[in-house]
Queue: 2 jobs
Job 1
Amino acid sequence: MGRRRGRDLDGWLILDKPLGPTSTDMVNRFRWALDARKAGHGGTLDPLASGVLPIAFGKATATIPYIMDATKRYRFTLSFGESRTTDDLEGEILARSEHRPSDEAIQAVLPRLSGDVMQVPPVYSALRVGGQRAYDLARAGRPPDLPARPARIDSITLVSRPDRDTAVFEVQSGKGVYMRALARDIALACGTVGHVSVLRRLKCGPFEISQAYVPALDAEGQLKLDKMAESGDKAGVLPVPLWPVATALDDIPALAVTREEGKRLVCGKRLETLSLLDRPVETLNDQPLWRVCLEGHVLGLCRVDHGQVKAVRMLENHLFFGD
């Protein structure tokens, strides 16, 4: 009999990712340390970025796309005076400028960088160009010419000016917004150049930095397994309880159903919206996704289309077995 490929773990571990390792590094380390069969993460953080990294185990991996699409909040420090190849501290200096904008000049440019904008991603990004990662092409001396892409930036707040060379911002944004590119664009809009020197993610969908687990690492950046498993069973004890799979969907509006309605959705049948809610069909149609709830339990996701409720992804159906 072959060795079982890991144990079944289902749920979310909200990690405060340290500087240094990549997001994939951290997923792989926790997957190995916990002997988990399946794991993934809900949004990449660069090695020089820290903060909220949601790690999905087992059934939670099915909800990763909804975390990727969710609203995120960041805090970063923009250092004026030098542009860099990577738009952060890791890259080589491309250009210098002696100009330092005033607080008023910075505040003046923020409105035009907010809302629905077109953003040119950093050359050192994970975007694929002709089947290759942009950062691989850049490192090979063939930086790609990346076109501007639509981006949604909900808000940019100038938090502080520690000194004339730096400014700290807090940003709330949607999917696919690069903070390194935003910092670059703020500096350019102010008539100078700059790069991100500190980047931290404070929120990712429903997950906040206050909920995040701070891992114990050794001098080489490896997880200290003895700190994770007080019993000595290195693959048996979680560092903290996992958040439920459905927590990833908390930002999606809830649609309460009866037991019979829930069963119909689980079985792939459609529902008439007017039998569910005392509200106009048009109101339901305006919301892309609804979280289907039965007695406080999340069954999955649905969409309203042409006056009918259709299942998009049902997470569980065991409630209806044995009826």
Job 2
Amino acid sequence: MDPISHLLDGFAGAFTPMNLLWVVVGAMLGTAVGVLPGLGSAMAVALLLPVTFSLDPTGAFIMFAGVYYGGLFGDSTTGILLNTPGNSSAIATTIEGHKMAKAGRAPQALATSAIGAFIGGIIATTLVVFFAPRLADLAGLFGPAEYFALAVFAFAATATVVADSVIKGSISLVIGLSLALIGIDGSSGASRFTMDLPPLFDGVSIVVITVGLLALGEVLFVASRIHRDPPTARVAFTGRPWLSRGDVKLAWPAWLRGAGFGVPFGVIPVGGSEVPTFLSYATEKKLDKRRKKQMFGKGAIQGVAGPEAAGNATAGSAMGALLALGLPTSATAAIMLAAFQQYGMQPGPLLFERNTELVWTLLASLFIGMIVLLIINLPFAPMWAKLLLVPRHYLYAGITVFCGLGIYATSASAFDLMLLLGIGLLGFMMRRYELPLAPVLIAVILGPLAETELRRALAVSEGSVGILFDSGIAVTLYTLLAAAIALTTVNRIRKARKGKATRQLVA
């Protein structure tokens, strides 16, 4: 049978009353957990794992799929409204999404996010249906040298393209890499930058860093200026609560470009959806500089559309990699792999032969789940946006409480709360001196991966650095990186000269 026939059989299995109920329940639970700072789809699936043992495998995995995508939808909601992403996959969306919210366009930002997540997920899942057996070829092309080149590409892109200043971007990158080095070195067993404190032996959690830098840092910065800045008027939502024709015209190319970034990364274990979301954000920001009226920094709708589509496209193809290869390329996929094994099934090529009904019903339920999530999220965008009408002192006090609760819920550690305060102060200082936050976050996320793959490559080559440049993929990535840096440098020199000439004419 061809994939279309299998998929139609899957829809027939998914459109039973109980399976539809599990899709809706999973989507709603995932969205609810996703909006809580520090939690996300991985945590929701982990919490639900013991609960689903009483369900049949098909119903359990349909619910997991709803939670998986629901968490991604919910992650961006608090990021856009409160500058507090529910998970690291929503960090790139938060940068421009929160600026849109502050400009009175929160409903439009939430609608853009929901539609982008829907488009990215639909494109990726459609490709999985037709090309799942061939995904192994793409993943097999990447070795240690290619992973390291990809990490270096992401580091440089965020430090030079995303940041307005190369120097400030590089400082932020160093801060992030320093945080990533804290803990026990996996190869030698030596402790690094732990100050002999046992809670630091496992390193600093990305959840603590994300919530501290983005949420608590923002709270402290606002509090420090509460007597300097004039009281802000209540946010007045501008335009219709839906996207206008002009919004769609700006957003749809970014949705497609974001999906294009996300699909390949779901198959490659490079740390989840953070890399494609940041690459999508950097691309949209670069393209925005060519426009006469630049929008980035003021709430660019493309900065929400691209990363959100990239994140859900990555999640969709990650599901394909899990089913077709047995390769978990994200934390949530790893938990779902454990769930498959507890039901006595091993994801991989044989899964499509031995558990055909379950696999195709699960794939069909992904389509249904994304439609359900769009129905749940899109009409409620104006309602969610009314959170911004809460008086500022109550709102930021609530954010602080939820930050502490979210961190304590994930680790039950008072030490993590102290770390949260320290990193919040770091976030405050970075805002005070206008250092970008994105390079810190991408360095913390990809730093351990880059170090591990560099060591593996050098171990294989017995210390020869030449192995890093032996493959065509690595050389291509380094060439693109060099070209991007050169182009960015030339553009900034031209811009500086033009500004200097303008000042001389005025003088």
